[in-house]
Amino acid sequence: MKSKFLNINTLILSFAVLSLMGCTNLDEKVIDEVLGSETADPEAALAAAYGQLGDGTFVDHGNVFALQEYSTDEALLPTRGSDWGDGGKWRAMHEFTWDASNDVVKTTWNSLNFGITKSLTAISSIEKSNSTNRALFLAEAKGLLAYYTYTTIDLFGQAPYRDPGNINAPIQIRKAETTIDALITEVEGLIPNLADIKTQNTHAGRFTKQAAYAFLADMYLNRAVLKNKTAGSFNFLEQAVSGSGTDMDKVIEYSNLLINNPNFSLESNYFHNFDINNDTSKEMIFSIVQKKNTDKASDNDLAYMSMERIQKPSPDNRGTNASCITPEFYYSWNGNHDDPRFQRSYQYADGTWFRNDGTDVSVPSSSKVEGTGKPWFHFNRGLQVGQQYGPKILADGNFDMTSDGRIKVYKLFTEKNTTLAADFTPELNFDNPSESVFTQAQINRGVRNFKFEFDPGYGNNGTSGMDVPLYRLGTIYMMRAEAYLRSGNISAALADVNKLRTSRTNDALKNNAPGVAIASLDENTLFKESGYELYWEMYRRKAMIRFKKFDLPGTAKSASLPYRRIFPIPQATIDASKDFTQNPGY
Fold it and tell me: Looking at the whole model, is its pTM more than 0.85?
């Protein structure tokens, strides 16, 4: 059974209680996929710490994704007629009207705090054990603690901590401006005890040396921002925490360790990184392992949320007509629609293409859904714009089929307004430009993102076999390119951007053509290229702040003040605990 989120408003009332929770709440266990067959308490506690990554925190649209993406120029979740109103909590993330009582803010805070507490529980349990893997597991638990803490201070400016070795220790509040250096030092110190990926039964779902390198590159890239997030400018060339050189030198150093590692290489099919079987991707450095038919929670939200309700991958599945991308992001692709990362068409085993352009009559039904054996209709990937096409459901609950057993393809109309064509428009045109609210007659608006493959195996948004990448090789190339640019090495930055562009290839409808290199690079171009490579991967907010874009006005968003770069501590936590103080501006 998928464990339900526990809504607590203050953290670590008793470390003993939280330790008990961490050791016994095994609904989230990842032992079978991550740790092997060990079932002793330390391993179970570590499994629970890993499990929290996937128990909504980084895989559900309403947690970290909402704060890192719905607040940016890439994504929004508008109110659509009678759907997705929910007291305005979703659109508030894009309108910048959130406050300390916003449920999305509170859910994300609570999810991350559970990650911190479960990591502390794992550390305490492992430190008391005599396991032969004690040093390795302890380093992994401390790496997870650092990752949850880093995400929390990035979003909220502060994070709780308690000494896991002292049950009576007071709560400490770790502030971003001082904690970032401590986290870098802590993670660097873990490296000797971490395993190299694919040794000691590790893989991309474990916190390995390579996960640490990627994490350190990320922290160094954002260190200047975390030290003073509301500043008017950032010193990206500050002396590094350890060793010689600047922060950007360290980004390059840690990136090199990954780019030069033969275990990793760029996938020519960009969308394989987001397939259901993406555990075979050669780009994965650190990911959240999702498996169906286990006790471990998984989530299909990243695919489900953007698909229209009338778009049905199987007779049992549909989308939910929620999130879309902004006109700003769509039009940033002008001149780049042939980039392999923009869109990819699906080809069935018999050679049939789904073109989604009105020329399709039918597709084969030979592709079957795991678990049900029902026909699987494969929608195209990437950014979907314009009139949409797909199968229809008959009164008996099955796809409408041709006489020779193929799936018929129809022009689609929205499910809740059956005379309104499912025509995804780049323009959003809200009646009130400052509020992302559509009437029932407007619910088709917004280009949709089908970057992540919809898994129709079980339910709509309930389960998925797609691993969610936290760091992959494409991320590392983009981070190194930015570090080169900020260090003044424009030619090296351009080479990294073009490596990403030209390593990806189109589908056979476009003759498998590779992406095209660009001739020059400046800061604004690099920002656009970052979006092409990393859209909807919980990267955009940090990039917008670094590139001084986050405060600018946009669709359904007025210009905002710098305090909005940090989210508020939930009011329920402030009310319940004297340890936290509210962030300025709230």
Answer: yes
